[in-house]
Every structure is written in C-alpha cells, then in structure tokens.
Amino acid sequence: MSENCDHNCGGCSTECADREETKNDFSAQAHELSKIKKVIGVVSGKGGVGKSMVTSLLAVTMKRMGYNAAILDADITGPSIPKSFGLKEKAQGSEIGLFPVTSKTGIEIMSVNLLLENDTDPVVWRGPVIGNTVKQFWTDVIWGEVDFLFIDMPPGTGDVALTVFQSVPVDGIIIITSPQELVSMIVSKAVKMAEMMNIPVVGIIENMSYFKAPDTGTEYKIFGESHLEETAAKHGINVLAKMPIDPKLAAACDSGMIELFDVAWLEPVGDVLAKML
C-alpha cells in the first residue's frame, strides 16, 4: 500500500494485498439456484451508439448458435431491452427470489421496466439506489441454465459500471462504438476502466459503420471514415464486427421483433465468445 493511499480502491490501479481484500468485500454471489457460465458486460463510453440494440442482437445470435442466453438490463434509467423483445408481462417473484421474463425464443431477461407498473414511468433514483438495484438483479434473480449472461450497462464509467465490475464476476467486456472522431477518447476510457478493475476486453463492435444502398449495394460512410482499427491496435484489442445502419433492424426493435431479424453480422463475435466456455 502506498503511504499516500486514500483507501479508494475503485479509483486506483495499484495492486496490493489491501486492495484485493477491499475489492473482495464488494463481491456478491449469484442466487444459489442460478447456473451462469459466462458473464459479458456490454459497455459504451457515450450514449446514442446503439448499445442496447447490439446487446439484444448478441443474445439473439448466441441463442441461434445453440447457447442459452440471458440479458441483465443494468441501464436502469433508460431500459429499452424489454421493448426490443416485445415483452408485455411483468417479472414475478416468490419468497425464494425473482424470476426473469422469458422471450419468445427462450432468452431470459430482467429489466426495471419488467417491474414498473407502466413502461413510461420514470426511474428518478439516486446513484446508490440504482447501483443496489443492479446488484439485486444479480443476487436475487433466479437465472436458469445460462451459457452467456449479457449485462447491458448504462453509458459511461460511473456508479453502475463500478458496482457491476466490483460485485459481479464479469468474464469480459465488449465495447460498442460508432465511427466518429470521439471514438478514440471514449474507447480509451472504457479500456482503462476495464484495466483498473482487472476485466478482460473481448473486443470492440462498431455500430452504424456504414449504410448500404438497397438498390445499388453501394456503401456510404454516413458518420465519416472509421479509425477504429488504429484505436484498437493502440490498445491491443480486437475489432469483432462492424454493423451497418439498417432501418429494418430499428423497425424490428421498435416492434418487439428483434428475434425475427435474421442477419449474420455478429456470428464472428459468437465464435469468439463460444471459445470462452
């Protein structure tokens, strides 16, 4: 321990015995009836990059590949996962725990919107309450036989990300970006936080990478040229996929039909994740 240590391990990258002991104090056990093999955090340094949509598509992709997938929606103040899957029923509980809602194809989902009386009710909570809610989604929800639990994180590197990384045994994170000049800075922040918390970075997915004209097949870089390869190389991480802008995907999410949207964009990501089992 440094003589200048302020005991704030969440903001310190120094490894020491005291840091490890403190960090373990935050760890939380999943519900005793849950059977989860791998936990993957899906993060973004800023909002508006389609992180929740990509999280949903990752779960759908793994389910199509024959794996049991689940989503823990940690974006408490902006939950959109249930809408993408067209979920109308509410999560139910008993004295032993809370049960996730299962989608049409068998993907288990837990989100605050599955607990609110109305989907449009705002969640006006302070940071600690939000963090505790996310933690309870891990400790109190009875997840079934899950190969991959995807955690849809809120944008940035704030309270919720810290709670998840300290409480949940995350096996790796996937960073979602878009092709803009801000990407280098945003990716750097996400990578550095993962390094501070000793979480491996599986790789980066670039969303809204291009638009392919349906009549000619010509690709247009709506948000400019991507510099993702340079940024990824700088940090020694892999570019897993580049997803196009597709109005049909947006329409599928809006109508709750993402499970019927059949594309192979994220199959290479699925192959990478499958090797983690």
Structural write-up:
There is one protein chain. This protein has nine helices and twelve strands. With 277 residues, it is of the alpha/beta class. The chain has one domain (25-263): P-loop containing nucleotide triphosphate hydrolases (Rossmann fold), CATH 3.40.50.300. Strand 5 (101-102) and strand 6 form a beta hairpin. The longest helix has 14 residues, at 51-64. The radius of gyration is 19 Å and the shape is globular. The model is unreliable at 20-24 (pLDDT under 50).
List the helices and strands and how they pair.
Elements: H1 17-26, E1 35-43, H2 51-64, E2 69-73, H3 81-84, E3 92-94, E4 97-99, E5 101-102, E6 108-110, H4 127-139, E7 145-152, H5 159-167, E8 172-177, H6 183-196, E9 201-206, E10 211-212, E11 219-220, H7 228-235, E12 239-242, H8 247-254, H9 267-274
Helix pairs in contact: 4-5, 6-7
Look at the structure and give the mean pLDDT: 87
Question: In sequence order, what are the helices and strands, one letter per element?
Answer: HEHEHEEEEHEHEHEEEHEHH
Number of structural units classed as domains: 1
Under the CATH scheme, the architecture is 3-Layer(aba) Sandwich
Profile the largest sheet. 8 strands, mixed
**Which shape, going by the Cα principal axes?**
globular
Under CATH at level 1, the class stands as: Alpha Beta
Count of beta strands: 12
CATH superfamily: P-loop containing nucleotide triphosphate hydrolases
Q: Strand fraction band?
A: 15-25%
Quickly give the structural class.
alpha/beta
| Count of separate DSSP helical elements | 9
Strand order of the largest sheet: 5-6-2-7-1-8-9-12
